[in-house]
Amino acid sequence: MSAVLAAASPAPFWSSTLALALVVGACSLVVGLTVLLVLFRRSRRGSVRERIGEFVSPPSAPQDPDAVAEPVTSLLARTERSLERERWWDEFKEKLDIARIERPAIEVFYLTAACSLAGAVLLTALTGTPIAGVAALVLVPAAARAIVNRRLRRQRILFADQLPAHLQELAAAMRAGHSMISGIGVMAEGASEPTRGEFQRVMADEQLGMPLEDALRSVTVRMDARDMEQVALVAELHRQTGGNMAEVLDRVAEAVRERAELNRELRTLTAQARGSRWIVTSIPPTLLVLIDLLNPAYLKPLFHTETGHFLLGLTVALILLGSMVMGRIVRIEA
What we know:
The chain has about 325 residues and is mainly α. Among the domains are: about 165-255, Receptor-associated Protein, CATH 1.20.81; about 270-334, no CATH class. Helices cover about 80% and strands about 0% of the residues. It has 15 helices and no strands. The protein has helices at about 1-10, 15-45, 50-55, 70-85, 85-100, 105-125, 130-175, 180-190, 195-205, 210-225, 225-240, 245-270, 270-295, 300-305, 305-330. The radius of gyration is 28 Å and the shape is elongated. The termini are far apart.
């Protein structure tokens, strides 16, 4: 009798053919839009020969590859105009610029949204519960933000490590007879990124009429480098009183080098603790995946009951909170 009732009961929606067709269609749509966005970005640049040919010869054929991508362009433009009203959008674009991520911010936004939707659909289809889809909608943007912040910190650390040597180059240029702004130009020519880009930005701001010390303080904010505040103070003193600023820059470079060595030593001493943070954070989701592969029925109460949903959400929140606390403990500022 129970077998007859089980056979007569309707199958769950996520086990039906319609659900499979919807999942495949949604994933195909998301992947197609993502590929179209990537190809559109590449096709906009064109080859060097084509871009030079636009200025040295008239167009030979009325081909317009951008006409196909015009709806995508208008969509990106409208979305960016609406996002420019938000306070976080300018900060997000500045982070991408400092992190040296070549793609425009609107493309990163759309790629993150596409990956979030695809992950939500796939996890919901695989687990049969919408809470997994909601988790994907939260975790994918958080992962994208973590990647951007990691590259941002890497560029700032690299800038701090390069700064002492470049300040000594600036002091040597000033001893050779250069002014401070021309010395910055000489130093920036032989510098590597991100120092070159930041000091070229300083030169551009100064040529537009901004005082040199203010332009240097903008680098302090962008690169989160407190040592640049001392360089800005040296530039202000040089503009107001003059004097032997090369010797002052040597002292500043020596202090910056000592601070950079201390920061490197601190990063070395906390490397084990930082590695432990990621290992401890990754253990629960790894065990969850392994148990689901070995014994799927064991985790059914966790994904198919309200109590299981509550406990799952509480566990995720506690894991993230613990990871943040461990990260804060090992983050020591010299």
